[in-house]
Give the backbone structure.
Amino acid sequence: MTHLPDIQSHITKIPHHKNYLKQHSELNVRLQQSKTANQPTWSYIIRKHLTQNAPKDALVIYNQIRRKGQYILGLVPLIFKACTSLSSISDGKALHAEAVKSGADTEVMIGTSLVNMYAKCGDILASRNVFDEMPDRNVVTWNAMIGGYLKHGNTDSAFGLFAQMLERTEVTWIEMIDGLARSGDTVKARILFDKVPVELKNVVTWTVMIDGYASSGEMEAARELFEVMPQRNCYVWSSMISGYFNRGDVKEAQAMFNRIPVRNLVNWNSLISGLAQNGFFEEALEVFWKMQGERIEPDEVTFASILSACAHLGWLDTGKEIHSMIDKKMIKLNQFVLNALVDMYAKCGDLANARSIFEEMVHRNVVCWNSLISGFATHGHCKEALEFFSRMEITNEMPDKITFLSVLSACAHGGFVDEGLEIFSKMENYGLAPGIQHYGCLVDLLGRAGRLKDAYNLIKTMPMKPNDAVWGALLGACRIHADTDMVEQIMEELSALYILFF
């Protein structure tokens, strides 16, 4: 076993999750403390963390191993996977340096892991450098490099490597077809699909090509290929259903679902999420209850979609019933489910529950912040909306245009003029260009405060043409403040524009 200097100072120090000890067995804890644990033992523990989506904990364990002066070659590819999951290129570079120092970087397995890690973390040049310097490569290495290029939209370089490959596997063809289709070049993808050797063209190859068409909105081409497909799996049915939903063809999506001979959870989820995304919220709930009747167990995807339907309908009681089902079935509370719960309670006006779930979340993204801020703003808790926006800034979470729209709306309804003007000016600091809705909120804010001339001047100096909603906000404010002169002025301008337009 090779002994190397501890790299703890180079690896990012990552704190334990607060529920770490609860999530893993006592054996796991003992193994972390053991000085005699061997490679299979450590490999098992680290793999367990990776499969449970806990890459930070995997890195913590690896650091504990390194503190004891142990360097276990078989663990290195697993730790590169952890770095990839975390998009932590700094940790990956530190591990790379360690591999070079030990001479392990010449191993095909290590080199391939490095190619994959750099590509997925966004450094495609470093990935290619590792690839070129490898003394030996296998087909997995080639596939990783090709996949990296395709992920970054560099189809020409991917094609160049593909042409050089002496041995192409099913994975190679699938990577190329999928990457080309997702980059929008379905023509080249189809040319490759037609060239796939018969012995490698299986249900997955067909599914990838059909999904490429469906994802690009080319449903006629997808349907033509689908109808001649020799064998279908659940995923190709779902690709077709989602493709029709994405272009708003709800009727055809439902017809496709009804054709499925044996439906599984993937198919049901495609139908439920598609209905919800197209505004058929009650129908989505009906399908959900029908799914229960057929004894198909819902998962995180199902619950996230159905909670969204409850949120848009404002059906708090049904939402609470769904929440209770999540608890009873011990569904994993991932980011999507937690976001959906916060959004449902916030939209339905149960701000106490929305806030409670939000506060218990370990990781919060902009979607979650937006749901809570919007909920406070919509239901008249304008001060709380501003407070949470301030908290968001303190935590360094980047607000987006939706965040600012909610906060500006809160300022308008709460009469916070100075705060609203300051927040509007902050958009530039975050690299966000205000849209017409943001200007509309600012016009509403100034109008409600009686600053009608300022609101009017803002409309006249907007970088885009004001729409009916913007003028309507000012007209409404004029009526509230009984400024008939400005109403007449606005109506004259609108009439002149109407005549000029027609």
User: Anything to note?
Assistant: Residues 1-27 have pLDDT under 50 and may be disordered. Residues 333 and 366 are 17 Å apart (CA to CA).
